[in-house]
Amino acid sequence: MIATNVRRLGFYLILAFALVSGSMVWWQVIEAPALASRSDNPEVIAARRSLPRGTIFDASGQVLASSSLVGDLSVRSYADPAFTHVIGYSSLRFGSTGLERAYEDLLVGRADPNPIRDLLNDVLARTPQPRDLTLTIDRRLQDFAAAELGTDPGAVVAIDPTTGAILALVSTPTFDATPISGDPDAAQEPMDALRADPAQPLLPRARQGTYVPGSIMKVFTGVAALDAGAITPETTFSDQPAQETQGFPVQGFTIREHDLGGIQPALWPLSEALQVSSNIFFAHVGLELGGDQFLAYARRFGFCDPMAIGPDDRALSVAASYVTNPVEGDCTPFDDDVELASASFGQGEVVVTPVQMALLAAAVAGDGVMPDPYVVRDVRAHSDTGTPSDTVLDRFASGGGTRVVSQGAARAMRAAMVDAVNGELGRLYAGQGDITLYGISGSVSAGKTGTAQLGGEQAPHSWFIGFAPAQEGAAPSIAVAVLVESGGSGSGRAAPIAGRVMAEYLRMTGGN
Amino acid sequence: MRIAWRGAELRLLLPILLLVPLGFLVTNVAVTGTFEPGPMQLAAVYVGLFVVAHLVLVLSGHRGDQLLLPAVGAMGGIGIVMLNRLPQDLAGTSALGFELGMAATQVLWFGVGLVAMLVVAIGLRDDGILRHYKYSWAAIGILLLAATMLVGYEVNGARLWIDLGPVSVQPGELIKITLVVFLAAYLAETRTLLTSARVRIGFISIPPLPYFLPMLALFGVVMLIAVRLNDLGTALLFFGTFLVMLFVATGRRSYVLIGLLLFVAGSFVAYELFGHVQARINVWLDPFADPLGAGFQPVRALYALGRGGIFGEGLGQGLVTLGGNLTIPFVHTDFIFTAIAEELGLLGGLALLAFAAVLVFRGLRIAALARDDFSALLAVGLTASLGLQTLIIIAGNTKLVPLTGITLPFVSYGGSSVLASFLMIGLLLSISHRTQIGTDAERGE
């Protein structure tokens, strides 16, 4: 009797042993590859300490980040602080950020882009081979844009509207990441200083800064309303001329125009309204579009959720932009028409990242297709010589893009944005974004300024979004968003920076 | 007393014990880069202890099971190779004028444990002392626990230790044995009644309470104290052992089922009531939620398992320290299995599990062949205790169950654990010996 029970117990114990064996197989075979690439895996940390780490090159093959052995420590040094907010840092003390984090396993050679080779390396226990990265950014344009911003806090984002390749991604102020990436004991002091700096140099403003957009948001409102059929390029609002001076009452609240600087109000269609940046006109457009549609288009353009530069598993993170209640974190419906009307000209509860606004410009430039941005062009075999290896292991191309509005809507907005820079009225506001001012002949730019009122005594944020070349028949090769924190009017600070950056890019690529 | 040759035991011990010095040699060279004679002497002592134990069994004419000692030697061998490979200042003793590192201390305890095993295996001619004083054994167990509660000190939030001058002991380890002895004696007496005289409540039949309650009361006191001491692993082990013994004594799955339901309900109540239980369950469910805080240890353990993969990183090649700190805190006790699976891989881990399985199934065989109910139930209880302890801690390492701070028998560092485990092997050997003698007598030898 007891012997029988013991045999039955034996059977259950066999099951228990099998179950425990199964859990071992789970972690040691099935989950092992996923565990190996996590950046807090001690093996990755150890590899970072002692193994050579791949070099990061700019688009023209110049070294941006490289590693050398000091004693038995692998120490990282960075050539150009203008890239700190793209590349991040790889610190033995503070972990890694930016591309250093996203590409950790490839840079230290813990993974191979080719899955078969990856498996083979694992089975044969080969020594990790570091990999090099090449960016889509040319150092010349990045440095040029950084110099344009100078010591002002702000951001410049430039993107190829066709491919989604990032051409410049500048956040200022920046810092030299080399001191915090070397000897772990010496890294604490410079990091403490950076953390204590009231200018917040550790914040990658282009990706993680969220700002009131002001009038650049009118590009979104307009193109969405055109696509939805809520307006046409010829649509006018009969009450608008009078409301420019008397104000536009919405649900008991009066929306007022900004200082038109002596321009006489008239019955303005889209082009003129964009040229003078009429809040009243775009409030009407937004109400015409309606809150639900406004939110639906915002989602299509990538608002409401965190974004990413690069493929999802190797992304530079971008904070979410919101058109309503950013505190609640999801695009909740508009509280009322006042909020909707305000959002339509970029005030109210709207907050955006410079990257999101550059993608908005790129979508208009790209005939309604918003590109998927990426910043790492390829992965190569490691090279010690200071020039990239010829062995390209993996090439990251654009994943295409998303059609957000029709070609017709995008073309109509493009024409209005060309006028906003070059038109008779537009020159008063956005003329500094004209690339011909900076030595480019035969091409024009399109764009829109923004002067984001912050309330109180704070000076407004200065914004410009645009693209070039934008004349009839040309395919735009660069779309930009420029932000200068509390930089005053969009025309005064951001527009000339954007114009010069676009002009510089066209010069570099011989595309004038 | 006639000499009894134990050929199988010797043949199985030899290859296992040859591998231990080899393991010392490999880890030694891999970790330090040079050959040092010190650890090799330690390996020789380890091997010598088992050879001597074998010879004593032979000379005393012991007829007990011949697979137990080799299985223990193998588990302990893997353990001592790994303990010798870890930083030696993790633990140790400075007793008797000697300064001993961790591995040396562990070998010392193996010596003490083997002696204790031999004393029990050979000296315990008659099980009367166990059977007739069952309430005394239970009382001793409860007193030991109560003593821990009163004069014990805490390590990592659980009060398990009593300081006895040169050594600290964990009474919980020894209570496992007295508790099993009590339960075996009690169940052997009452199992017929427990099986036949059932009380039906609707569809459920429960054991007759007058026979059941005394055992339940005593057992309940032990469980309460264990939970009070925050020693959840030991409480779980006690409870599992109890259910296994109850099942074997009565053959009723329903009792086990009711027990498991009670356990689930109790766990739920504990989860709602106690912050530390809640924290531990949450860490178990998602250790990656806080990989640098509460989840640090389990996450690091999972990484180590992943690094090991199928074939392991190789003896001495594991990532034990990083910048001077252990990659897994408490690697020598709670996470010794993980360290082994990192360096020897899935295959090494499975081998260790296989040795444990040999131990368990030999233990069950001893129970099945035993000539009386008490011996059978005692063997089942001891086997279940060793087996469940092994399964619970390994499953805790692999995140199959929440982690509890119990040792891996014969492998983890810790004198109390080693001593208690060897005492249990000694009891199994003595039961097996008496069975064999009895069988021989029947055959008229």
Give a structural overview:
The complex is a heterodimer of chains A (512) and B (445). In chain A, the strands form 6 sheets. A 6-stranded mixed beta sheet of chain A has the order 3-2-1-6-14-15. A 5-stranded antiparallel beta sheet of chain A has the order 8-7-19-18-17, with helices on both faces. The model of chain A has no long low-confidence stretch (mean pLDDT 89). The radius of gyration of chain A is 26 Å and the shape is globular. Helix content of chain A is 39%, strand content 17%. In chain A, helix 8 runs antiparallel to helix 21 (490-508) and helix 14 packs across helix 19 (407-422). By secondary structure, chain A is an alpha+beta fold. Chain B is globular. Chain B has a 3-stranded antiparallel beta sheet with strand order 1-2-3, covered by helices on one side. Chain B has a two-stranded antiparallel ribbon with strand order 4-5. Chain B has a two-stranded antiparallel sheet with strand order 6-7. In chain B, strand 1 and strand 2 form a beta hairpin. Chain B is mostly helical. The relative contact order of chain B is 0.13. In chain B, helix 1 (7-32) packs antiparallel against helix 2, helix 2 runs parallel beside helix 4 (102-123) and helix 3 packs antiparallel against helix 4. The interface between A and B is large, with 40 and 50 residues.
Oligomer: heterodimer
Tertiary shape of chain B: globular
Number of strands of chain B: 7
Number of strands of chain A: 19
- Overall mean pLDDT of chain B stands at 87
Helical amount among residues of chain A, as a percent range? 25-40%
Q: Gap between N and C termini of chain A, in Å?
A: 96 Å
Strand order of the largest sheet of chain B: 1-2-3
Beta percentage of chain B is 5-15%
User: Given the C-alpha coordinates, what overall shape of chain A results?
Assistant: globular
* Rounded average pLDDT of chain A: 89
